[in-house]
Automatic annotation (TrEMBL):
Site feature location: Stabilizes the basic form of H active site to accept a proton: 96
Alphabetized GO MF terms: peptidyl-tRNA hydrolase activity; tRNA binding
UniProt-recorded name of the protein: Peptidyl-tRNA hydrolase
Chemical reaction(s) catalysed: an N-acyl-L-alpha-aminoacyl-tRNA + H2O = an N-acyl-L-amino acid + a tRNA + H(+)
Functional summary from the UniProt entry: Hydrolyzes ribosome-free peptidyl-tRNAs (with 1 or more amino acids incorporated), which drop off the ribosome during protein synthesis, or as a result of ribosome stalling.
The entry's keywords: Cytoplasm, Hydrolase, RNA-binding, tRNA-binding
InterPro entries assigned to the protein according to its UniProt record, in alphabetical order: Pept_tRNA_hydro, Pept_tRNA_hydro_CS, Pept_tRNA_hydro_sf
Protein family (similarity comment): Belongs to the PTH family.
Originating species: Microbacterium marinum
Annotated positions for site Discriminates between blocked and unblocked aminoacyl-tRNA: 12
Subcellular location: Cytoplasm
GO biological process: protein quality control for misfolded or incompletely synthesized proteins; rescue of stalled ribosome
Length: 194
């Protein structure tokens, strides 16, 4: 069994989408890379990748941001998993989640995609939904705004103030999931904030 983990942040490519709610998964990858002074570089799997470690002597981490649009994330994710020989149960997908309030995290393995097209495409490409997910809450849009527009909007002013903490918490959750397993990460990060 490989001691490597593929950690993927879902999002859309390019500056137009960088600061949007849909790209919060990629923001978490940037945080994980920054903690290790790593830079993501182009990979032939149509992604940007940094190879690093949880800490010296611990699990190898392959941090990745697909260059594809969200709804077709599966190809790059499956290609990277194959390239590095990493099984689906060690592919952690970080993504935005409408059905979780902003500034809240939920972790799970497997289950449905909940209408998230990026997660749906990854499950299809990997041939299984049985991969760990770090779901970063972005909340539902106010009023009658279309959720498809909401996820492509930048975070609001009050959200932007709390966003660095939410991203840091999500990065902590990823590290704990790798280090101690899903249950430990759920116990720490599903508790309400004090």
């Amino acid at each position: 069994m490989s001691d490597s983990w593929l950690i993927v942040g879902l999002g859309n490519p390019g500056p137009r989408y960088e600061a949007t709610r849909h790209n919060v998964g990629q923001m978490v990858i940037d945080e994980l890379a920054a903690r290790r002074s790593e830079t993501l570089r182009a990979h032939k799997a149509n992604a940007r990748v940094a190879e690093t470690w949880l800490r010296p002597g611990a699990a190898k981490l392959v941090l990745a941001k697909p260059n594809s649009f969200m709804n077709v994330s599966g190809g790059p994710v499956a290609s990277l998993a194959k390239f590095y020989g990493i099984p689906a149960e060690r592919v952690i997908v970080i993504h935005d989640e409408l059905d979780i309030p902003f500034d809240t995290l939920k972790l799970k393995t497997g289950g449905g995609h909940g209408g998230h097209n990026g997660v749906r495409d990854v499950a299809k490409a990997l041939g299984t939904p049985e991969f760990p997910r770090v779901r970063v809450g972005i909340g539902r849009p106010p009023g009658r705004q279309d959720p498809a527009d909401w996820v492509l909007d930048p975070f609001g002013a009050s959200e932007r103030q709390a966003l660095p903490i939410a991203i840091s918490d999500a990065a902590d959750a990823v590290e704990l999931l790798v280090d101690e397993g899903l249950l430990a990460a759920q116990q720490r990060h599903h508790a309400p904030r004090a």
